[in-house]
Write a structure and sequence with these properties.
Layout lengths: L2 H9 L8 E7 L1 E7 L3 E7 L14 E9 L2 E5 L2 E5 L3 E5 L5 E4 L6 E8 H12 L12 E3 L3 H17 L8 H18 L5 H5 L6 H15 L6 H8 L3 H12 L3 H18 L5 H7 L5 H12 L3 H11 L2
Antiparallel strand pairs: 1-2, 2-3, 3-9, 4-7, 4-9, 5-6, 5-8, 7-10
Helix pairs in contact: 2-4, 3-4, 6-7, 9-10, 9-12
């Protein structure tokens, strides 16, 4: 490996690259800019060479040709990187850049694994069950590919003005937008589920939340608690319960509590106050009103019916 190739491995690829921007000149060109979530580097070696980055498990890599062409090896797949096709290298995958045409310039992008997985989980509304794996070839001549490429070009333009990224909120929004665009444009093992709104995982989410309610209905529960138990977002949880039961998760929880109180009163195992509190219904006035709506009588009437039958 020559001096330029060594600098490329030392500067662009390791996660240890210092925050900020740097320019390197000499045999060819290399520019690299990094935030904690995103690294973008432009490489123009001026000749053919082979770069084999060190294996690491923290980032996804994307390479596309700003001009010219080269080849990228990702695992067992060889991808021609040129105007209409980029290469994607998955976390922990062996990859190499080789067979550079003269004057080829390549933009390399590294996206934080933590950020990519987090954004995918937010889009799906459920935790990932297996590692995210992208296809090796990224088609840039599709509608979504062209849209992705325009977004990257915008980011590169913004990086020319360091002040544009001084505001952390603006920087994070740009980067999150790029991640979401990548997840929607490039095929991967979760794409069908993503486009279906996460529905394949819905039954498991429901089972988790229902089980949690059945075990903890007597305690203090919020909708955020239920979403956490199901491994999903509050919004997705609301949608799932509406689809499955025609009600919100908190309404489902209230019905479980009311049924438990009803069972206690009907079997004579508690008075009205005890039945309400042991079921997690601490406001007696609201408890009585909701109970009457559901069962057609007041809690005291259910309890009195048991007393009359016991005579």
């Amino acid at each position: 490996m020559d001096e330029f190739a060594a600098r490329l491995n030392a500067v662009y690829y390791p996660a240890a690259l210092a925050a900020g921007a740097g320019a390197f000149r000499g045999t060819g060109m290399l520019f690299a800019t990094q935030t904690p979530e995103l690294t973008i580097g432009y490489v123009q070696p001026g000749r053919d060479l082979r770069i084999t980055p060190r294996l690491e498990n923290t980032t996804y890599h994307i390479n596309f040709a700003w001009q010219g062409r080269l080849h990228a090896r990702s695992g067992d797949t060889d991808v021609e990187v040129q105007g209409t096709s980029a290469s994607v290298h998955n976390v922990g995958a062996e990859h190499a850049l080789h067979h550079w045409d003269p004057d080829t310039g390549v933009v390399g992008i590294k996206l934080s694994r933590t950020l990519v997985e987090h954004e995918l989980e937010q889009l799906l509304g459920v935790p990932l069950e297996e590692p995210l794996v992208f296809e090796s070839q990224f088609r840039l001549d599709t509608a979504s590919g062209r849209s992705w490429l325009r977004l990257v070009r915008l980011l590169l333009t913004e990086f020319n003005d360091p002040a544009a990224f001084e505001d952390r909120r603006i920087r994070e929004q740009y980067i999150r937008t790029l991640v979401v665009a990548t997840l929607n444009a490039q095929p991967h093992n979760y794409l069908a589920q993503l486009r279906d709104g996460g529905h394949p995982s819905t039954p498991r989410t429901v089972r988790r939340v229902v089980a949690h309610i059945e075990q903890h209905f007597g305690g203090s529960l919020t909708v955020a608690d239920l979403a956490a138990a199901g491994g999903t977002s509050v919004r997705r949880l609301q949608e799932v319960f509406q689809d499955q039961f025609g009600m919100s998760p908190m309404t489902y929880l209230r019905d479980v509590r009311l049924q438990h109180a009803h069972d206690l009163l009907r079997e004579g195992r508690a008075d009205v106050t005890e039945a309400a509190r042991s079921s997690g219904l601490v406001h007696l006035g609201r408890f009585s009103a909701a109970y009457r709506t559901k069962f057609g009588e007041l809690p005291s009437q259910t309890r009195s019916g048991i007393a009359r039958r016991g005579r």
